[in-house]
Amino acid sequence: MKNKIGSYIKNNYIALLASFILPITILVIVYAMNGIYFGSEQTLLASDSFSQYSNFHASFNNVLHGEQNIFYTWYGSLGLNYWSFSAYYLNSLFTPLVFFFDNSAMPDALYVITLVKFGAIGLSFCVFATQTFKKMSWWQYISFSVAYALMGYTVAYSPVIMWLDAFVYLPWIILGINRLLKGKSPQVLFWSYLLLFLSNFYMAFIVGLFSFLFYLVQLFIDWKQHKKSIRSYLIAALSAGGASMLTILPTIMDLKNNGESLETVMDFFTKDTGIWDFIVKNMVGTYDTSKYESAPFVYIGLIPLIFCCFYFVSKKFSLRSKIGYGFLLLLVVASVYIEPLNLLWHGLHAPNMFLFRFSFLASFIVILLGCYGFEAYETEDRNKLFNICLSLGGLFIAAILFSNPKRYNYITNETLYVTIGLLVTYLIFLSVYKTKGRLEKIAPILLLTLMLVEVFFNTKGMVAGIRSDWGYPKREYYTEPYLDIEQLVDGTKAENDSLYRLENLDEVSFNDSFNYGYSGVTMFSSIRNRHSSAYLNGLGYRSLGTNLNISYANNTLLMDALLGIKYNISKEEPMKFGFQKIGESGAYSLYENQYALPLGMLTDKEIFGTDAVKNQVDLFTHLSGVKDIGIKIIEPRQVALENTTVTSSGKEQVYTEISPTRPQTITWSVYVPAKQQAYISLYPTDMSYMFESSVETTVNGVTRESKISSTGQYYNLGYYEEGTTVQVTASFTGAGMVKIYKPDILLIDTVDFEKAVEAIQEKGVSFQTTGRTASATVDLEEDQVIFTTIPYDAGWSAYIDGKKVTMPTFKKAFLTLEVPAGKHEIQFVFLPQGFKIGAVLFASCLVVFQGFAWYERRKKKSEGLVNE
């Protein structure tokens, strides 16, 4: 086996090396043209890369350096199942490259990882091509490998870095199937499937479904010959699927507990699609958007497209193969336009932007058949190629002439000229291709050159589209505040030996806590604890709809105390009672909350009552046992309006803008009594109408901006030792009419608040958290309930004095435990639900498959049929 691999590499090393290097080189050049390179001021952290992937990769770096557990993170909001989280975001074989970077250099880490992944995609297809298409030269292997690596989909969706691994494994999986069909070893298929399933469960579903359909097509094409492979295919596929349960099963269970419901099919046809989408998106460099109302990204090059068409019109290929592959391609195309099929590819859940995530399958089919067609082409087929090129050119021109200019306004002159120009050039090239003489020797080099030029222009168009669509943020947005925030966070870690929570009022992104390593509230992630987020939304931390986001901003002192928010980092004075400045670094200051409560609190069984603790006041009152915690509601006095008029309808206030070029500004006057913490409540009557609206509040010269739909309703007016009249100005943008409930003022009497906090502190339970455990010692005079602010997850187990006990569920939001009287050691231990079963399946399926592979090899060897 080693000799065969060595011989293969020796015979193909130029093609393999070039297929790896050329995609990287083209990307490096295109990125550099956009001001992006290693250490550059611009970064490639477009779209969610800035807020999510950079921070999540930084968190994995923390894991690699022993600063975080692989199963659970205390730094994903209040706490999160990290094993399932990684199954979507971080399980790539390339992710460990972050080990060689500091977290402050994540823009460079993601730049390097992105380039390496694209190189691996090209290399993967080259291995597939050299094993599949025997009549090509290595020049042609390189040409098609680069085209595959830099197809429209991969570059346009390159900001979603965790999806790129699927394109590495797809060619290997198809290669593995082809090897099985020829009676060869199933090892390639098994390991390709396993790596795919482990890397990203989402893309694994799409590729896994496609590869199964691909295998069925092979059975249809030649049932008599290929039926012999059924047993090997099923054992390899099922064994790989079973072994992948190490990550897939815990993730499925997590999604079942915390995931979104399946979509209901409302329409048969997909909205916002056009009949010219596939024609236009096969032109060079056509980028519309990766947000909403986009057409599918299917471009993979004109040569693959030309020869794919040739495959279907040539008599050199069997009718059954044309029907089989034609059906597969038609299914993918139809899935764009038929909503039930569209949803099926997405796991019955509609995508949030980055639409038609399966559309790369059409590209793969096109280049696969294109390679078959190219390999079979001879000079006598020249007329067919001419007709195909002319037909494609006619379709491109027709699309421009007859398509809706509003829908297809992204077709630029450069796109048109380059596409038609290349099509004409290819037409000329094909007219002399395979002509005897000197041209025959340079034809492969000429083709490679032309295809590289085409790929370059397409990549250039895709990157320009991303820049226009999302923007490539400057490095300073990521790195400028980094050292200052890191210094303050590290200072808090040095002062504490148990878990505490911290929030940055001037956050860099919604996932700072992953990066800097602190426990907070704010988070933006597809993998999240929906039950705890939903309950926290009821407690004032905004987390709407599917709970993708949860935000700390605009809540009250009550929740700061209850969740143990011990520190705030802020550029401005936070104006909060009990928060004292204890440090500063650069533009940021650190404030310590004197009234932060521990992770656990003693209470009684009444907390499980149906009507108990519906909001933060109820919860605070119940835990403290203090009936009057000093909450009062008063009305503000409106004193000024600018660029708006106001009308009232019951409890609703409607502010209508006068000029759309300026914000609507309302000013209220509020008298805040002595020793009171004050907030103004600004809450939309229709959240969907105000979803994109933002508001800036200005109090005592301090201005803070909030997006109404993603932050809480209580905008801080400050704490005052003496009675003070305060003016607050709110400037609304993003909606022509502002529809909110009539604003009121929430006052918290800090004297009563302090008494209530002290009452809870007397019943506080301090937990020590290490890795995936939280432990405490209690000495109780009577049976009580320990209430914690650790998010509930089915993976948690509770132990009292080393004995496992059942846990009651508190709204599926927080861990609670009934503890009998006496002195006890309490321990919560986290292990992802399903992990043990998954680990057993992983080991057993590996053994089963390798046993089967050994048996098959031995059997063939005895029959003299060994064929690796």
UniProtKB/TrEMBL annotation:
Keywords: Membrane, Transmembrane, Transmembrane helix. It holds the Pfam family YfhO. InterPro entries: Uncharacterised_YfhO. It comes from the Bacteria. PANTHER family: INTEGRAL MEMBRANE PROTEIN, INTEGRAL MEMBRANE PROTEIN-RELATED. This is YfhO family protein. The chain crosses the membrane at residues 12-33, 109-132, 138-156, 201-221, 233-253, 296-313, 325-348, 354-373, 385-403, 415-433, 445-466, 837-855.
